[in-house]
Amino acid sequence: QVQLVESGGGLVQEGGSLRLSCSASTRSFSLYTLAWFRQAPGNEREIVAAIYTASSTFYADPVKGRFTVSRDNAKNTVYLQMNSLKPEDTAVYYCNAEVVAGQHQYDYWGQGTQVTVSS
After folding, report:
1. Between 20 and 30 A from 101 (CA), which of 32, 41, 86, 111?
2. What stretches of the chain adopt beta strand conformation (E)?
3. Distance, CA of 69 to CA of 55 (rounded, Å)
């Protein structure tokens, strides 16, 4: 069982920045695909960004050019740098870690951290 702990959420004004962190309790951190999701009230959970084992990245269209995902395998931590924040970025942000081992896929979630952007 892998535990993910997010931090860094908070209240920020439109145009501001926040950096989210997610620390994982696993010695195999470098083998995991890591992703950030978000869920706003009344909406489904949606992917924001992902970073793969070779550090290639994916970004959802609404955050391209504003958010940057990175990972530090030595610290078992994934980051989400969020710049030029907009009120529509307000949501609970979740960290996700996924790995395939043999015929099994393992999927873990953090508890979420609230990000609120005021206009």
Report:
1. 111
2. 4-7, 10-13, 18-24, 33-39, 46-51, 57-59, 67-72, 77-82, 91-101, 104-109, 113-118
3. 9
Q: Report the pLDDT value the prediction gives residue 1, as an integer from 0 to 100.
A: 87
SS3 31: helix
Task: List, in sequence order, every residue forming a beta bridge with 100; answer none if it has no partner.
Answer: 105
CB atoms within 10 A of CB 83: 14
Both structure tokens of 70: 């990175």
- Output phi, psi for 44, to 5 deg: -80, 160
Tens digits of per-residue pLDDT, 100-114?
988 999 999 999 999
The Cα 88–Cα 65 span in angstroms is 15
Q: Which residue has the tokens 């989210």?
A: 20
Around Cβ 37, how many Cβ atoms within 10 Å? 21
